[in-house]
Design goal:
The protein is an all-alpha fold and 206 residues long. Helix content is 83%, strand content 0%. The protein contains seven helices and no strands. The protein has helices at residues 8-26, 30-52, 59-84, 91-119, 125-150, 154-173, 177-203. Helix 5 (125-150) runs antiparallel to helix 6 (154-173), helix 5 runs parallel beside helix 7 (177-203) and helix 6 packs antiparallel against helix 7 (177-203). The protein starts with 7 loop residues before the first helix and ends with a helix. The relative contact order is 0.14.
Length: 206
């Protein structure tokens, strides 16, 4: 009887249990990674919006700032994730790796799509900005929805839903207000989630 395969529900419960145990053992969790992304989004996109409101800062500088901050956040996330995965075996490690690969694959795919659409030259610069901000917010939301389902994490699932709503809002408000949506809704969503996770980690709650 002990060798019988686990049902889908039992497998998900086991993964969630191992994830909670891992957080307790390492004394951490997603709070620090989310805080890093909150900083990148708030500072990067906030600066980009500021650049659109003044002639003192060239527009391309905002893109450089966002790129540098996002690369730094990705490196930090990778280091923290690798550290957290040391010595971990079983379903949690497999699911975590597959989830990480899904981010990389979907990001590459979306980049190709957006670059190709932009290369046609049929969109104005304002429309290109809306295309990129809307699609990337949407991708972020879908990925967090998937993560919330995998780890049975309602907060992560809620963050994904919020990002999807923000994606639609960023397109509706137009350029350059879309950068404010990225800053306030996107970065603010990451920051709020980071705070809630931090409080949960300190209190020992899920």
């Amino acid at each position: 009887m002990d060798d019988e395969p686990l049902s889908a529900e039992e497998s998900l419960n086991l993964i969630a249990q191992q994830n909670r145990q891992l957080r307790r053992e390492l004394g951490g969790g997603p709070a620090r990674m989310l805080a890093a992304w909150a900083f990148a989004w708030i500072v990067g996109w906030g600066f980009t919006y500021f650049a659109t409101q003044t002639e003192a800062v060239p527009g391309w500088v905002g893109g450089v700032v966002v790129t540098v901050l996002f690369l730094a956040a990705m490196v930090y996330t990778g280091v923290v994730s690798a550290r957290a995965g040391r010595g971990i075996r079983g379903p949690s490690k497999t699911v975590g790796a597959m989830y990480g690969y899904s981010w990389a694959l979907s990001s590459i795919g979306l980049s190709v799509i957006d670059i190709r659409i932009t290369s046609f030259g049929s969109l104005s610069s304002d429309q290109v900005s809306l295309l990129w901000s809307g699609t990337w917010l949407l991708l972020t939301g879908v990925q967090y929805l998937a993560g919330g389902m995998l780890w049975q994490d309602k907060l992560m699932y809620g963050l994904g839903g919020w990002m999807i709503v923000s994606a639609g809002l960023s397109v509706l408000v137009g350029f350059p207000a879309n950068f404010l949506v990225l800053t306030v809704c996107g970065g603010g969503g990451f920051l709020l989630a980071a705070i809630v996770y931090f409080v949960r980690e300190k209190s020992g709650r899920r």
